[in-house]
Amino acid sequence: MQVKSRVRVEGGRERITLVPESLDDLWHLQYVLEPGDLVAGDTTRRIQRDDEELRDTGGEREHMHVTIGVEEVEFHKFANRLRVSGTIESCSREDQLGLHHTLNVEDHDEVEVTKHWKPDQLDRLEEAEESADNPDVVIATVEEGEAHIHTVTQYGTESRGTFTGTTGKGEYARGRGELFDELATALSRMDADAFILAGPGFTKQDAYDHIEKNHPEVAEKMTVVDTASVGDRGVHEVLKRGAVEDVQRETRIAAEADAIDELTKRIATGHEAAYGPEQVQKAAEYGAIDELLILDEKLREERGPDGEWDIDVNELITDVERKGGEITVFSSEFDPGLQLRNLGGIAALLRYRLE
Asked: For 113-175, where are the alpha helices, taking DSSP H only?
């Protein structure tokens, strides 16, 4: 994420000009924007005219620069865009003011965001800026007759391919080397700075030896990690063991996996933990929160008009930070976030146990 400029404007608000550079940045931006913010950017809009030639065409599209009062934000990762919808507050055509419009923000589109920025939102922008320097990591998991590829992103992990084939003996058996070659070829086509090869038993080492001999340009970027599973479960093991942190130390997913594992362990043993809005609020009042864990989608919901909690989430975050606690916002796209959602979307690791 590029932060191109920051300007104070009327009403104590700040206008920040941003250029998202990746799908990760669009995902971060989704949780920065909220209803009532102003977002400005270039767009096209279909304009109805009275011209006789255009009467039956439904109008023609015009390029214009608009400022929208945000009502709704949707992250479409499969379309590589962020849809920001609301009413037009200003634009070059007065006849369009007050009408509804949607800005489709894609990577490398410049947008201006004017709002009362909250500390965690500014932290999120800073995180997005710093993540641009992190290496891109691909995790490959392999066992006999099966291989999977996942990419690591700021908003979770994505499955990018699965390869299967019969190994062993028989007329239709597929040689292990063929499977390893197919995996290595797929990895070589990916724009990644590092590969992690993981899986149970000796198969992963055999795969590495084959790749090192036949695809050395892939092997030189590869680290081998032992896991009990492959696929999604294998990827979670890789993250939990900190393998990704070795090459991408600031990856938020690894931190989330560690935090949720520590939380569930403490809950199971009755140690220093709280979950659900009421318990967490009580812990905050006592100054007992060491780390607040909150789900991004719940944070956004509770800041809007449809919030369900009987607490003010902004006051809670401010209180936790003022008393020295850390804030970790979980991605709803990844397994630790799903676990946190099952605990009410909010929890805390405590400094001491509350009776």
From this structure: 119-131
pTM above 0.90, yes or no: no
Q: Give the DSSP per-residue string, 205-254.
A: HHHHHHHHHH-HHHHTTEEEEE-S--HHHHHHHHHHTTHHHHH-TT-HHH
Which residue(s) pair with 158 in the sheet? Answer: 151
Give the per-residue pLDDT at 129.
83
142 within 8 A of 183, measured Cβ to Cβ: yes
Helices (H) and strands (E) in the chain, counts: 12, 16
Burial 181-196 (b: 16+ CB within 10 A, else e): ebbbebbeeeebebbb
SS3 279: helix
- Residue 349 pairs with which residues in a beta bridge? 273, 291
Secondary structure class of 290 (helix, strand, coil): strand
**Alpha helices, DSSP H, located in 241-312:** 243-247, 252-269, 277-285, 296-303
Q: Which letter, b or e, does each residue of 21-48 get, where b requires 16 or more Cβ atoms within 10 Å of its Cβ?
A: bbbbbbbbbbbbbbeebbbbbebebeee
Report the DSSP beta bridge partners of residue 39.
68, 113
* Tokens read off for 40: 């400005």
Question: Residue type at 230?
Answer: V
Specify whether the CB–CB gap between 173 and 166 falls below 8 A.
yes
Please report, in angstroms and rounded to a whole number, the separation of the first and last CA atoms in the chain: 44
Kindly give the residue spans of alpha helices, DSSP state H, lying in the chain.
Answer: 23-30, 119-131, 176-188, 203-214, 216-219, 231-240, 243-247, 252-269, 277-285, 296-303, 313-322, 335-342
Going from the first residue of the chain to its last (355 residues), give the mean pLDDT of each consecutive group of 10, the final group possibly shorter. 91 93 84 94 79 52 91 82 94 89 91 94 85 75 93 79 69 70 93 90 93 94 92 90 65 77 93 94 95 91 85 90 88 86 96 87
